[in-house]
Specification:
The chain is built from eight helices and 16 strands. The strands form three sheets. The protein has a seven-stranded mixed β-sheet. The longest helix has 20 residues.
């Protein structure tokens, strides 16, 4: 090889190195880990590759499966975004307090967003507005994308009026699931509470989620056999975490039953215990 060619290669390598150093913070961020902490039912704390913290369906204080330390909302650390699939208390109960404590926006079904503002549950600036099937970017300065998709469930908001002390039921919008696309393109599909519906196949084919958070408890949501069918035939994710089971006498489905029903599959299942973390 000639000296001239060696010199050209060294010069090219120098340019590449300079570019790498210039963009080193971004590269390091993209090479970071995604940490998933499960806290029972449908509540996850997701730490993204750039350190943002997203909490889904926060039901902690009265959740019988949440580890004691996390019944103190401060134990979650700084929260940047709260994501709620529907208005039922086992998905929404601690969302307002968590949002106000961290000055974090709540992403929720559009009708629930309006009801929160009308009832004064959170300040209007914390009730983030988006619609089903839209793609939103509620964390400025990041390219984290949130998409609401259909869920087959219901979503009424029941609360005790602080003035009358009476129990009231209000419109909570339509239930949703979420496609959460993180900075490095990793996609999480949090199904929320849902049963089987045909467009799950479309969701799997169109969004191609890497990680599926799937309810398996039955009665109100998918049972293990249904969840396995949806995972294997419709969504086909690389990874799955079973959720929404064991918190009341009706939610009798288990991760083992789900995994048994899956049988041979390319999907890696993580049967987590509340308080456990995994990284991707």
């Amino acid at each position: 090889m000639s000296v001239t060619r060696n010199g050209a290669l060294r010069a090219a390598a120098g340019v590449v190195l300079a570019l790498a150093l210039a963009f080193a913070p971004a590269l390091r961020a993209q090479d970071g880990k995604i940490e998933i902490l499960w806290l029972g039912q449908s509540c996850f704390r997701i730490k993204t590759v750039t350190g943002k913290v997203i909490v889904t369906d926060p039901w902690l204080i009265n959740n019988p499966k949440t580890p004691q330390q996390y019944k103190d909302l401060d134990a979650l650390g700084k929260v940047d975004l709260v994501v709620v699939t529907h208005a039922h208390p086992d998905h929404f109960e601690d969302a307002p307090a968590l949002a106000k404590k961290n000055n974090a926006k709540i992403v929720s079904p559009q009708g629930l967003q309006s009801t929160m503002i009308s009832l004064g549950i959170v300040p209007a600036e914390l009730a983030y507005r988006m619609g089903k099937s839209g793609i939103a970017m509620p964390l400025p300065g990041t390219n984290i994308k949130i998409t609401q998709v259909h869920a087959e469930h219901d979503s009424e908001l029941t609360w005790t009026n602080p003035e009358t002390k009476k129990r009231e039921t209000h419109f909570g919008g339509e239930p949703v699931g979420y496609i959460i696309e993180l900075e490095n393109g990793f996609k999480i599909y949090h199904m929320g509470d849902t049963g089987v519906f045909g467009d799950l196949k479309f969701i799997g084919e169109y969004y191609k989620p890497d990680l599926l958070m799937v309810p398996v408890g039955g009665h109100f949501v998918l049972n293990p056999v249904q969840a396995a069918m949806v995972t294997k035939e419709f969504i086909k994710p690389k990874y799955a975490i079973p959720m929404h089971y064991g918190t009341n006498p009706f939610l009798v489905g288990t991760p083992k039953e789900y995994m048994d029903a899956l049988g041979q599959t390319s999907t890696k299942v993580f049967p987590m215990n509340p308080g456990e973390k995994i990284e991707f």
